């Protein structure tokens, strides 16, 4: 009987891979015209200053090249330009929302440290029932990245907010994420951490002290790290 049961046992068929349907009837002239119009070249003109967004990159080679103005020109393709613009529209919406809630205090305020030279602008300063005032860093993220966020913000966003908290002396902050796919929100609480801030300062001073002969030669960042395009 066992043999008959084995013979009669239904064999699972391999799962079929569902392919996306091929899109047809496209106005290629219009699409190409938009692509050409939106693409632009970003010239790296900044030098001798560290920005919080730069410091979120773990690659010292990138940070050295950025600080010394050696990253060169960067071609921003049309899709990336649209992503940047989408982030800008999110800030406009949230500015309006925070105004409605009565929590808004300020937006896009500059903060700076002279030595090492660190300069940036935080997104929002809000009134908070529990903490009095908080700095809020705003990010948009795709569904996969949004789902992966469980109990803390991404490391580079946490570091960016820590810089703003330590430059202002404000004790509490929030990283607010909006899911690009369905506009769901997550708001992670952050407390000012002096140890993280000291690590940032030490890293900046170490990069400042580097000369061409001692600069890092290998990229230690992600595959999209800006230093990979510099020989």
Name the descriptors.
single chain; 231 residues; alpha+beta; Lambda Exonuclease, Chain A; 5-stranded mixed β-sheet; two-stranded antiparallel ribbon; 7 strands; 23% strand; globular
Short description:
The chain is of the alpha+beta class and 231 residues long. It has helices at residues 2-8, 28-38, 52-55, 60-67, 78-101, 143-148, 155-168, 194-209; strands at residues 40-42, 74-76, 104-113, 118-128, 132-141, 172-179, 185-191. The chain has a domain at 77-194: Alpha-Beta Complex (Lambda Exonuclease, Chain A), CATH 3.90.320.
Structure report:
- This protein has 231 residues and is α+β, with helices and mostly antiparallel strands.
- 39% of the residues lie in helices and 23% in strands.
- The longest helix has 24 residues, at 78-101.
- The protein is globular and about 55 Å long.
- The termini are far apart.
- The chain has helices spanning 2-8, 28-38, 52-55, 60-67, 78-101, 143-148, 155-168, 194-209, and strands at residues 40-42, 74-76, 104-113, 118-128, 132-141, 172-179, 185-191.
- It has a domain at 77-194: Lambda Exonuclease, Chain A (Alpha-Beta Complex), CATH 3.90.320.
- The strands form 2 sheets. A 5-stranded mixed beta sheet has the order 3-4-5-6-7, sandwiched between helices. It has a two-stranded antiparallel sheet with strand order 1-2.
- It has 8 helices and 7 strands.
């Amino acid at each position: 009987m066992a043999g008959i049961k084995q013979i009669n046992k239904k064999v699972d068929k391999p799962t079929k891979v569902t392919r996306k349907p091929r899109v047809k009837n496209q106005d290629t002239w219009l699409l190409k015209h938009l692509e050409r119009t939106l693409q632009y070249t970003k010239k790296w003109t900044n030098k001798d200053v560290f920005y919080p967004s730069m410091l979120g990159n773990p690659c010292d080679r990138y940070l050295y090249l950025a600080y010394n103005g050696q990253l060169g020109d960067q071609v921003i393709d049309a899709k990336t330009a649209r992503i940047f613009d989408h982030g800008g529209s999110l800030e406009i919406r949230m500015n309006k929302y925070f105004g409605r809630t009565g929590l808004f205090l300020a937006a896009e305020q500059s903060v700076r440290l002279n030595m090492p030279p660190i300069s940036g602008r935080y997104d929002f300063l809000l009134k908070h029932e529990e903490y009095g005032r908080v700095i809020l860093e705003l990010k948009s993220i795709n569904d996969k990245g949004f789902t992966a966020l469980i109990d803390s913000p991404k490391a580079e966003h946490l570091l960016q907010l820590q810089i703003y908290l330590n430059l202002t002396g404000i004790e509490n902050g929030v990283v607010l994420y909006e899911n690009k796919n369905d506009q769901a929100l997550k708001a992670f609480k952050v407390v000012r951490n002096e140890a993280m801030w000291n690590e940032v300062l030490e890293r900046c001073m170490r990069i400042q002290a580097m000369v061409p002969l001692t600069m890092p030669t290998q990229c230690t960042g992600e595959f999209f790290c800006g230093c990979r395009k510099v020989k």
